[in-house]
Amino acid sequence: MKKIIVILACLATSVAVSAPRIGIKAGLNFANVDKDIPDQSVNFDPEMHTGIIVGAWGELPLGALENFAVRADFLYTQKGAQYDIFNKQVKIIADEIVVSPFLIYYFPTKVVRPFLEAGPELGLTVADGYKIDDEKFESGGNWKSSNFSLNLGAGVEFSLGGNALFVEGRFNRGLTNMGNWDANAEGDLKAKTYGVQMLAGIQLF
Known about the structure:
Layout lengths: L1 H16 L3 E16 L12 E13 L6 E18 L2 E19 L5 E21 L2 E3 L8 E15 L2 E12 L15 E14 L2
Antiparallel strand pairs: 1-2, 1-9, 2-3, 3-4, 4-5, 5-6, 5-7, 7-8, 8-9
């Protein structure tokens, strides 16, 4: 019990003496979906779709754990995919508002600081369905309203006086079977999102 109290006290001290950082970030999500349709009559293979990512982040260095920090991203992320079928290009719509807590490790360098990051992600669906040309079709509730993912990534931070600029790349792997993006589709489709994300951010405070 005493050890637990000491650990909690150390963490509380690290939070108390470490100044939080807040900023914005934006980038691209090279997104796709894994799909599995039992006994499908028409075969199609989803391809990568490029979506946008934009939002805010906040980070708190852990004074008791040198070179470590915790960060939370709050982002609008366009996931999904695209494919060709019957000479038509279909775009899968899977836009989410995501909350991503990360554990960050910064290499002990100055001015230019490489870092590694890992953490879970909760995505709340804000748009789903599919689009053919300019016509949009809803999923009719077949696409789930929440998506749980894992993130692994790395990046480099550049000091700018008292602030910082960084670039990062990460792999996002969806673990939730999101279902079907087509309200009229037959068969029990299983689809999981994934993507490679490239972002740039800046510290504002």
